[in-house]
Design goal:
The chain has seven helices and 19 strands. It has about 400 residues and is of the alpha+beta class. It folds into two domains: about 140 residues, Immunoglobulin-like (Sandwich), CATH 2.60.40; about 250 residues, Purple Acid Phosphatase, chain A, domain 2 (4-Layer Sandwich). A hairpin with a 2-residue loop joins strand 5 and strand 6. The longest helix has 17 residues. Bound molecules: fe (ii) ion. The site of fe (ii) ion has 6 residues, from loops.
Length: about 400
Amino acid sequence: MEEQGSINQNRRNFLKGGALLGAAALLQPSLAIASEPLYGKEEGFKIVVGPCLQSSFNNTVSIIWVVNKNAASWVEYGLSPDSLTEKAYGKTELGLKPIGTINVIQLINLQPGTKYYYRIVSKEIKDFQPYKLTYGEVLNSDIQSFVNPDINKAEVNFFMLNDIHDRPKSIPFLLGLDKETKPDFVFFNGDIFDYQTDEPQIIKNFLQPCTEAFAKYTPFVYVRGNHETRGKYCRELPQYFESISYNAFSLGPIRFVVLDTGEDKEDTHPVYANIVDFDGYRREQAELLAKEIASKEFKKARFRVVLMHIPPRYSGDWHGPKHCTEVFEPLLNKGKVDLVLSGHTHRYQIHEPVKGLNSYPLVIGGGPKEGTRTLTKVTANQNELLVKMIKDDGTEVINYSIKK
Ligand SMILES: [Fe+2]
């Protein structure tokens, strides 16, 4: 395989004022206010977090890591730990390979149902003169592995976590409630943070616990909640991920659609200070959903599952939830969606289909506080889609089966 496509990093670096200085320059104010800086200029070159896998499947996976100094970075991978013969870089743009501190490098054209071994490599850039670039130390991770799933596999398993709200210990704790299942992915259904402050928060409260608990070998899928749209660093959040918004992918018998439901209050609310347009954004998401439900992949899928933070109904009468009902529910009904998974209310619940309202069952995960936290587990084969929810004391609170 040749150089692979990457994601957001390079483009954003350009947008923020130069490929080299982009991410690093942005991080300086954040480092200044962090109570426990994860790294400083005086430290040696190091990998701050990762590797961490994120995927949208279709024989691709993205590998995420962050280093503390500007570097040229790549992934070495292959079918055996002794032979990492392939190399993937971030996407070349305008003829320039990306350099910086944040890496989201995508591997493409992977073979279905195949185990891959990989390691991340970063080469520090000590000095960047117009005609003489000086490299420093080269760092690499241990060799890790993952299985690229066959999208036509007979069965799919995934876990959902939602509304963690800056409680990183909940991630390993809740995943630890089921040590038997090997999920194909872990889905984070929004409000993993209270609001976005800086890079150390993204690392300590999300990427680090994910890397330690599962993400070196099992990918996550992530969609923003209304809280990830807040705070001075929310505009930087996307550069750490392959995707945090709309997505659609097939895995096993399920066609997944991920919707970004935006904020919960009206755009004109004073707390947004005239710098948001979530009504327009939700309408764009609805247009994508309309196209999706007309697609061959959606129509031919055995089961259709929609993942969205704010539930399309039954979450109060604030503007955001009501607008979600208005723009999304007619499409969910028309598309004969088999299941919607949401969060946001902090109260785990199942709402069965109601004639004239929601023709889909809606399962809502619990909240951030002890006693309300949940792990939602979904399994599907050709005949059955089964949702089980476990509360943080280990008791099963939902067991809902949808048969075909
Ligand atoms: Fe929320």
